[in-house]
Amino acid sequence: GGKDLADGVRTLMLALIWQLFRAHLVGFLTSIRSAAGGGAKTLTDADIVLWANKTVAAGGSGLAIRDLHDASLASGLFLIELIAAMEPRVVDRAHVTPGGTGDERSLNAKYAISCARKMGCSLFLLHEDIVEVKPKMLLSLVAALMGIALSKQNRES
């Protein structure tokens, strides 16, 4: 409630900020998709994951995720494949590790963030958020990538 905000209850304030951020993100993606002729239906997390899986599959990778809680995201490989499927020139495979150890996962996560930034993504996550598979933060990254793809699609049509 308002009293909690006035009192500065940190966890409740962060929860409110996250809900506002998520609503903005989903609204933004929905409006871009609508402008591209994709309908005005509000996007869900499942829609964003479906888009990511289709994009990675179109790039020739056999990787897929179940949802944004999928433990395989910790390796960073799916995110790198997603970025490579969108813009192959951004990813240098020489910098990608197998992601089997903690250090390799960390390197891949840092590289995925670096590649996403090269594409113009505004990011709100740290490499630790990827390695620890924080679904809210992963949503912000995947949605930002989806926004870039939809914007590019709109410009081309």
Could you explain the architecture of this structure?
This protein has 157 residues and is mainly α. 64% of the residues lie in helices and 0% in strands. The chain is built from 7 helices and no strands. It has helices spanning 2-7, 10-35, 45-58, 77-86, 102-118, 127-131, 135-156. The mean pLDDT is 91.
Secondary structure layout plus pairing:
Blueprint: H1 2-7, H2 10-35, H3 45-58, H4 77-86, H5 102-118, H6 127-131, H7 135-156
How far apart are the termini? Answer: 45 Å
Mean pLDDT: 91
Structural class: mainly alpha
> What is the overall number of helices?
7
Question: What general form does the structure show?
Answer: globular
Main β-sheet description: none
Order of helices and strands: HHHHHHH
Spatial extent as radius of gyration: 16 Å
Task: Provide the descriptors you would attach to this structure in a database record.
157 residues, mainly alpha, 7 helices
Short description:
The chain is an all-alpha fold and 157 residues long. The protein has seven helices and no strands.
